[in-house]
Amino acid sequence: MAKAYSNDLRERVIKSYESGISKGEILNIFIISLDTLNRWIRKYKETGSVEPYKRTKYRAKKFSDEALLEHVLKNPSATLEERAMFFSVKHQSV
């Protein structure tokens, strides 16, 4: 995943937008995409902040190892797809 833009850049972009500079000019000045600009504007309007969302290093499991073991012991012939359906996850998560 790409590194997040600095808060300083985000703030300068929003200040430029609020001062009346057109989106096209902002895109050329700061070399960012229209999607990025629109996302920052939307986030600023919704939260008053331009800081990036916190990134997590991993996703929490939707079920415990104990729950999986219990399911395996109770249903030894279940397929991977059936286990995934039981826990409401994709088969890669089982």
Structural topology:
Blueprint lengths: L6 H12 L4 H8 L3 H14 L17 H10 L5 H8 L7
Helix pairs in contact: 1-3
Overview of the molecule:
It comes from Candidatus Electronema aureum. Residues 4-94 form the Transposase Synechocystis PCC domain. This is Transposase. This protein is an all-alpha fold. The protein has two domains: 7-47; 61-94, no CATH class. Helix content is 55%, strand content 0%. The protein contains five helices and no strands. It has helices at residues 7-18, 23-30, 34-47, 65-74, 80-87. The protein is rod-shaped and about 65 Å long.
Keywords:
94 residues; 2 domains; 5 helices; mainly alpha
Give a concise summary:
The chain is mainly α.
Low-confidence spans: none
Main beta-sheet annotation: none
Measured between the Cα atoms of the first and last residue, the distance is: 25 Å
Q: Give the class from helix and strand content and strand pairing.
A: mainly alpha
Number of separate domains: 2
Arithmetic mean of pLDDT: 88
Strand content: under 5%
Using the CA coordinates, give the radius of gyration.
Answer: 22 Å
Q: What is the chain-wise order of helices and strands? A: HHHHH
Query: How much helix is in the residues?
Result: 55-70%
Number of E-state strands: 0
Q: How would you describe the shape?
A: rod-shaped
Tally of helical runs: 5
